[in-house]
Amino acid sequence: MEIASDYGFSTLFGGVVPSARVSPEEIKSRILFQRFPLEWAGRYNDRGYVFRDPIVHRLQHDRNPFDWQEAYTSCDFPKDVALIQGEASEFGLRVGYVVPVTMLDGRVAAVSFGGCHADIGAEGRAALSFVANYAVGNLLHYKESRKRLIGKVTPREFDCLLWASEGKTDWEISVILGISRSTVTKHIVSAREKLGAVNKPHAIAMVLRSKLIR
User: I want to staple 203 with a disulfide (CB 3.0 to 4.6 A). Which of 70, 90, 116, 192 is the partner?
Assistant: First the structure.
């Protein structure tokens, strides 16, 4: 996020692009990370805006990085443009840059940087493309590592431990994962009990020693 902020961006979202309409639960499982204003993130997720987002429309066929404005201009659904562009701007999200990332299994992920204004040239575009690919690669590595813990901790419990290992507070983790703070605390306590750890730092240390979080 620090690199993105150098170019004027204040938010980011990363996820696996849906190729067809899927359930809200499936959409949530595709989210890799999100740092949006809480109210906007909740509205976007709860109202299923992903299916009306011109950026997602463009990602169905474009594998090259693009500006939000390019997606708005090329979209064939003006009502969707008015909805997403209008409501996003209410939260200071007026400009953005999207980097598609093709994964090994052929699926497409994307990282979207947003903000009120941005100053991005060729150097900035290259830097953000590198950051996006690195971030998605790291998260996918974590998700693969997480599978090894199935039977001990749940995927969501692993996510909470993952972000805790990065020094995030329960509140910060709740924002990143789009869940309540109390739910984060509940997941961490449950993971600690399943791992037989005496406290949260011990649980994190256990998975670090097992090289499940790096």
Answer: 192
